[in-house]
Hints:
This protein has helices at 5-16, 53-61, 86-92, 112-119, 130-136, 138-146, 176-187, 196-202, 233-236, 253-261, 278-287, 299-307, and strands spanning 30-35, 38-44, 69-72, 97-100, 123-126, 150-157, 162-164, 191-195, 218-222, 243-247, 265-268, 271-272, 275-276, 292-295, 313-318, 328-329, 346-353, 356-362.
Amino acid sequence: xxxxxxxxxxxxxxxxxxxxxxxxxxxxxxxxxxxxxxxxxxxxxxxxxxxxxxxxxxxxxxxxxxxxxxxxxxxxxxxxxxxxxxxxxxxxxxxxxxxxxxxxxxxxxxxxxxxxxxxxxxxxxxxxxxxxxxxxxxxxxxxxxxxxxxxxxxxxxxxxxxxxxxxxxxxxxxxxxxxxxxxxxxxxxxxxxxxxxxxxxxxxxxxxxxxxxxxxxxxxxxxxxxxxxxxxxxxxxxxxxxxxxxxxxxxxxxxxxxxxxxxxxxxxxxxxxxxxxxxxxxxxxxxxxxxxxxxxxxxxxxxxxxxxxxxxxxxxxxxxxxxxxxxxxxxxxxxxxxxxxxxxxxxxxxxxxxxxxxxxxxx
Length: 363
C-alpha cells in the first residue's frame, strides 16, 4: 500500500455516497483516477445504476488514464449486463494499478474482476479502507447474500419514549431542524416504509422536500388488509411518485383493483396469524431490487422489525419534554420476558439538532 492510497480511497468513498438512494439495485460506487499524484478523473454510479463509476472517470481522464492509478470502492464488474464490463474499459485504457477495498459478493463478479485485471498485467491492491467500504455497501451485500435490503429504523419521540398523546396528537414532537435531517436520511435510502396505522393516522407524503433534489424514494406501506384511505396523500400522488403496498393473501380483491387503478404497485406477502411476516416483506422488497429501506414506524411495524431481528441501524430523535404513560409508545408489544432476548445495538453517534438530540446505533 502506498502513502496516499487511503487519501484517494476516502475521496472515492465520498463520491460513491453521492449516489446513495438512486442506484438500486446496483451499488453506489465511487472512482478516482490519479496520474503522477494528480487527480485526472472522477466518477460515481449514475442514477438508475448506470453508467458505472469507472467509465465515467475514464471518460474524464481521457488519455491521461494510461499508466494511472485507479481507486474504486468495489471490485470492478467483469460481466456483460446492460453495459460492458468495467474491467474491459480499465484494460483498454491501459491503467497501471487498480486499488479496491473489497471484492463484489455477486457471483457474476466475485473475484473475476480482479483476476481479469491481473491477467492483463494490471497491479491490483485490495483491503484499503475495507471496513468503511463494507459499511457503505452493506445494503447491496445484504441483498445479494441474504435477499433483503439494509433496514434503518427511525424513531422520533418525547423524552419518555412516546410518539403521540393519548388522543393521537403527534405533530410535531421534534423541531424543524430534526425534520430536515429526516429528509436528508430519506434521500440516502432507496425507499421509505411505514405501517398501515401510521398511514391512516398521519396521512404522510413520505417525499423529499426542500432538499434541492429531484429524485424521490419509493414509498412503501405494510398493510395486511389494504385498509388505507383512498383519498390520502399517498393515493393522490401514486402516479407521480412510486407507491408500493405490501399486503397479505386475504386482502380484499376490490381494494387491490382500486389501488392498482390509481398507479400503486401491490406486493403480496406471507402472513402469520393477523400480521405480515416481516422476513417475507423484506425478501419481496429485495426481489424488487431495493438495497436500503428507511422505516419511519409506527410502533407496531417498528416492533415487528426489531422482534424479527431485521433492523441494521437505529436512528432516534429525542425531544426535551414528556407526554406521560397515557401517550402512545414508540414501540408496540414485542413479547420479550428477559433483557437477554433484546438485540443490543452499538452507539456510534450523538449530536444536538436544533432543540432535539439525534442518536445513531448500529448492529
